[in-house]
């Protein structure tokens, strides 16, 4: 299936009903009569008065990572609106993440939002949640696996498509030799980004694996690679902190390569402003966290699902010097 077709089918249902704005007539009136009024009444001045429920969010990365801090902020905003007790936990080790999901099942939560960065490791425990009657939604990682594992909905970016679109952009910019830096081997989302880039980029693409948990090591490994191969004219990193480290490595290596990255944070926005970073691929992590929690609340209290059986796409959006000012104010507030 062509990328444009897939994106049309995976409609980004992020306005109106999918954002939980049941008080708007367009959502409430669709049900008609008493039930519609009850749904509208559930949101009093933007805050639900539905019974308090507990929802767990279990991710493969967490506090201290600027990207995941944004995911969590979005989840917390939805939880505050929806009268939800949010239980957030994370672990980069897939087996440990699965144990955290099991803990949520044992707590008899009303719903679980989970990332499938390493889907095979999560399959068994997701099945256990579903057998326990707990609805599960996916976010951020696992777009190729959420349906087969029986998840209710998925909110995120198609990383393969995002990589392909970045490849097209780098072709247009005149790049000839790209180094794609993967900071966590085996993470399907990261692997898909570089694979997508390689599919559409007409020049040479090399993959460099680094230890993302050790930033000094990332810097030294990248510096050595740039010193070894002066033909590299584009560095693509898969997270904002790694792009900022790449700026340092480029300087140390005496390289003239441009730097593009996936994902944003406030420092990355400033780097785009000053020209040290060429562009960023934004998948809107705050929105992913928000929609995952709000989607579970909507399903619990109104039987709603989003996407029509397809993933709800939150990206890719490209941020460069032409539009960074419009994003900067939200980044300064800690939500982009």
Describe the structure.
With 336 residues, this protein is α/β, with parallel strands linked by helices. The protein has a domain at 159-282: 3-Layer(aba) Sandwich (Rossmann fold), CATH 3.40.50. It is built from 13 helices and 14 strands. The chain has helices at residues 3-9, 25-28, 33-41, 66-82, 94-106, 119-131, 159-173, 188-200, 215-228, 240-253, 266-274, 285-302, 324-332; strands at 43-44, 47-48, 53-59, 84-90, 111-114, 136-139, 154-157, 177-182, 204-209, 234-237, 258-262, 279-282, 312-315, 317-319. The strands form three sheets. The chain has a six-stranded parallel β-sheet with strand order 4-3-5-6-7-13, sandwiched between helices. Strands 9-8-10-11-12-14 form a six-stranded mixed β-sheet, sandwiched between helices. Helix 10 (240-253) links the parallel strand 10 (234-237) and strand 11. Helix 5 (94-106) runs parallel beside helix 6, helix 9 (215-228) packs across helix 10 and helix 11 (266-274) packs antiparallel against helix 13 (324-332). The protein is elongated. Mean pLDDT is 88; it is low at 1-33. InterPro entries: Bact_Solute-Bind_Prot2 (IPR050555), Peripla_BP_I (IPR028082), SBP_2_dom (IPR025997). Residues 1-30 form the signal peptide. It is found in: Cell envelope. Belongs to the bacterial solute-binding protein 2 family. Keywords: Signal.
């Amino acid at each position: 299936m062509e990328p444009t077709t897939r994106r049309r089918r995976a409609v980004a249902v992020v306005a109106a009903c999918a954002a939980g704005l049941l008080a708007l007539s367009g959502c409430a009136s669709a049900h008609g009569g008493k039930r519609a009024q009850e749904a509208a009444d559930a949101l009093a001045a933007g805050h639900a008065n539905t019974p308090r429920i507990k929802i767990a969010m279990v991710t493969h990365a967490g506090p201290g990572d600027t990207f995941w801090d944004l995911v969590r902020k979005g989840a917390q905003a939805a939880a505050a609106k929806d009268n939800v007790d949010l239980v957030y936990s994370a672990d980069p080790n897939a087996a440990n993440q699965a144990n955290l999901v099991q803990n949520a099942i044992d707590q008899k939560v009303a719903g679980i939002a989970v990332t499938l960065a390493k889907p095979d490791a999560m399959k068994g425990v997701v099945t256990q949640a579903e057998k326990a009657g707990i609805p599960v939604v996916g976010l951020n990682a696992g777009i190729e696996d959420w349906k087969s594992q029986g998840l209710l909905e998925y909110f995120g970016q198609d990383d393969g498509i995002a990589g392909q679109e970045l490849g097209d952009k780098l072709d247009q910019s005149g790049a000839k030799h790209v180094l794609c830096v993967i900071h966590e081997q085996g993470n399907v989302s990261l692997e898909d980004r570089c694979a997508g880039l390689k599919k559409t980029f007409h020049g040479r693409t090399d993959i460099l694996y680094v230890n993302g948990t050790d930033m000094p090591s990332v810097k030294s490994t990248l510096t050595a690679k740039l010193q070894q191969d002066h033909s590299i004219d584009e560095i693509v990193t898969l997270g904002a902190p790694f792009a900022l480290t790449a700026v340092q490595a480029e300087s140390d290596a005496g390289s003239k390569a441009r730097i593009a990255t996936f994902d944003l944070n406030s420092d990355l926005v400033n780097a785009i402003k000053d020209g040290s970073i060429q562009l960023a691929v934004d998948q809107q992590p705050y929105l992913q966290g928000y929609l995952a929690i709000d989607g579970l609340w909507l399903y619990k209290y109104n039987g709603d699902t989003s996407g029509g059986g397809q993933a709800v796409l939150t990206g890719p959006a490209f941020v460069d010097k032409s539009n960074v000012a419009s994003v900067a104010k939200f980044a300064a507030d800690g939500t982009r």
